[in-house]
């Protein structure tokens, strides 16, 4: 039954996961159509529904939206997760671009050549611990609020939680030097919509394993 | 007297060039502070001016903004180059994100290993002519208007012009099959603020020369 956004992607995290998180946090129910083979992707392309022949693609409000950031910005704005004015928006954008960069590194890790994995994992941990997490820890420390921007839940908070959980999958004690991020994680995980998304059976996807890597390489030809 | 945005980067295009284009298109005067050596970069980092230790950084309206897209979004919204509502914004974002993907390919071309360069160039030309340009040609054809979105000048038009010119620098006849993009290019180039930016002596930067690449790499690595 239309009305619900419909997500087109492979059955894994990739670039669609942040979109699932944001919709879930906003309490928006969504449907998913999974690309399982190269033929599934070709069909979408031949049907002309992928503006630049790529996924993610989200059918929402009569549009077939593509480009991850465009989709996320639209959802954030529509569901009041984008701050109350231009300056709050600027801060949210800055924070989100940081967590995007960090999660991007983690996302590609399973696809790196085996002999570079150890080095890349070390780089991820170094960047998380020295470049990214200190910024968010300081932001929370400086204003003492529960949320990163404007004392209200925003896209930045949802994205940061997602990044924290992904980083912890890489190194379980990665937050040990960041007490405020630990508290933030506890607090934000307890928000009802997010709590629901974190429970088994939700549309949240598991980390990408070796088997998925092979399937994804086949579908997207790389 | 400041009030003018101040851009911190090296003296070249890189990720700052789109920001220069947007400010120029909006008719906003700006200053630039160029990093010439690693020490210049380290100094900015040590002073705590770079939120994630990276440039671009733009001092604007009391903020030290970083992250290219955050900066572009702010400038576009502030100067009314971001459409009139959420749906126009969505279209602009879709168009602009794809342009930035293509720009990323152009930007990374000079640093490709020598044995991969030719293949990379072929990929760029293929993507530009088969994946990206046809979309914008069709958009202009379908609505017959002068601008990409909402019959009104926006950042999508600025960024499309930017990438068309970059593409032509790589392959002068790359727009041969795209008559509407050719007329778009001429039309947008004639907008007074943009025309000014396209003239010699403006703050527009030239393409990176091979000989300058080592100096740039030294700043960052």
Describe the protein in words:
- The complex is a heterodimer of chains A (222) and B (221).
- By secondary structure, chain A is α+β, with helices and mostly antiparallel strands.
- Helices cover 55% and strands 8% of the residues of chain A.
- Chain A folds into 2 domains: 6-79 and 198-212, Glutaredoxin (3-Layer(aba) Sandwich); 86-191, Glutathione S-transferase Yfyf (Class Pi), Chain A, domain 2, CATH 1.20.1050.10.
- Chain A has helices spanning 17-25, 38-46, 68-78, 86-108, 117-143, 155-170, 179-189, 192-197, 210-220, and strands at 6-10, 31-35, 57-60, 63-66.
- The longest helix of chain A has 27 residues, at 117-143.
- Chain B has 221 residues and is α+β, with helices and mostly antiparallel strands.
- In chain B, helix 4 (86-108) runs antiparallel to helix 5, helix 4 (86-108) runs parallel beside helix 6 and helix 6 (155-170) crosses helix 7 (179-189).
- Chain B has 2 domains: 6-79 and 198-213, Glutaredoxin; 86-190, Up-down Bundle (Glutathione S-transferase Yfyf (Class Pi), Chain A, domain 2), CATH 1.20.1050.
- The mean pLDDT of chain B is 97.
- The longest helix of chain B has 27 residues, at 117-143.
- The interface between A and B is medium-sized, with 28 and 28 residues.
Question: How are the SSEs placed, and which strands pair?
Answer:
The complex is a heterodimer of chains A (222) and B (221).
Chain A: E1 6-10, H1 17-25, E2 31-35, H2 38-46, E3 57-60, E4 63-66, H3 68-78, H4 86-108, H5 117-143, H6 155-170, H7 179-189, H8 192-197, H9 210-220
Parallel strand pairs in A: 1-2
Antiparallel strand pairs in A: 1-3, 3-4
Helix pairs in contact in A: 1-3, 1-6, 4-5, 4-6, 6-7
Chain B: E1 6-10, H1 17-25, E2 31-35, H2 38-46, E3 57-60, E4 63-66, H3 68-78, H4 86-108, H5 117-143, H6 155-170, H7 179-189, H8 192-197, H9 213-220
Parallel strand pairs in B: 1-2
Antiparallel strand pairs in B: 1-3, 3-4
Protein name (chain B): glutathione transferase
Pfam family, one (chain B): GST_N
Domain GST C-terminal (chain B): 85-208
């Amino acid at each position: 039954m239309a009305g619900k956004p419909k997500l087109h992607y492979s059955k894994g995290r990739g670039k669609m996961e942040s979109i699932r998180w944001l919709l879930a946090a906003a309490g928006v129910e969504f449907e998913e159509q999974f690309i399982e083979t190269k033929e599934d992707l070709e069909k979408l392309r031949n049907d002309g529904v992928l503006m630049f022949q790529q996924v993610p693609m989200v059918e929402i409000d009569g549009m077939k939206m593509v480009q991850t950031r465009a989709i996320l910005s639209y959802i954030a704005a529509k569901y009041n997760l984008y701050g109350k004015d231009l300056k709050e928006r600027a801060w949210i954008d800055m924070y989100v671009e940081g967590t995007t960069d960090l999660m991007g590194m983690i996302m590609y890790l399973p696809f790196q050549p085996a002999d570079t994995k150890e080095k890349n994992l070390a780089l991820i941990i170094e960047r998380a611990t020295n470049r990214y997490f200190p910024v968010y820890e300081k932001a929370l420390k400086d204003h003492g609020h529960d949320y990163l921007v404007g004392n209200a839940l925003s896209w930045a908070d949802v994205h940061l939680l997602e990044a924290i959980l992904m980083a912890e999958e890489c190194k379980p004690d990665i937050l040990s030097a960041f007490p405020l991020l630990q508290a933030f994680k506890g607090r934000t995980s307890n928000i009802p919509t997010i709590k629901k998304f974190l429970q088994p059976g939700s549309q949240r996807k598991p980390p990408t394993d070796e088997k998925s890597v092979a399937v994804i390489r086949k579908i997207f030809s790389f | 007297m400041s009030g003018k945005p101040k851009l911190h980067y090296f003296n070249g295009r890189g990720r700052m060039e789109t920001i220069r284009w947007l400010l120029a298109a909006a008719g906003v005067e700006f200053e630039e502070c160029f990093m010439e050596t690693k020490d210049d970069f380290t100094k900015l980092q040590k002073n705590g001016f770079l939120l994630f230790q990276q440039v671009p950084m733009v001092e604007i309206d009391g903020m030290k903004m970083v992250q290219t897209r955050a900066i572009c979004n702010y400038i576009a919204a502030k100067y009314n180059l971001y459409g009139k509502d959420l749906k126009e914004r969505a279209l602009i974002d879709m168009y602009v994100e794809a342009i930035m993907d293509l720009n990323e390919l152009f930007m990374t071309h000079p640093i490709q290993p020598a044995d991969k360069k030719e293949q990379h160039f072929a990929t760029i030309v293929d993507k530009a002519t088969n994946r990206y340009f046809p979309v914008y040609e069709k958009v202009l054809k379908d609505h017959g208007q002068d601008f990409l979105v909402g019959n009104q000048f926006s950042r999508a038009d600025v960024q499309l012009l930017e990438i068309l010119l970059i593409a032509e620098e790589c392959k002068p006849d790359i727009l041969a099959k795209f008559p509407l993009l050719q007329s778009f290019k001429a039309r947008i180039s004639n907008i007074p603020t943009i025309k000014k930016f396209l003239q010699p002596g403006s703050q527009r930067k030239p393409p990176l020369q091979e000989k300058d690449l080592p100096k740039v790499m030294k700043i960052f690595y």
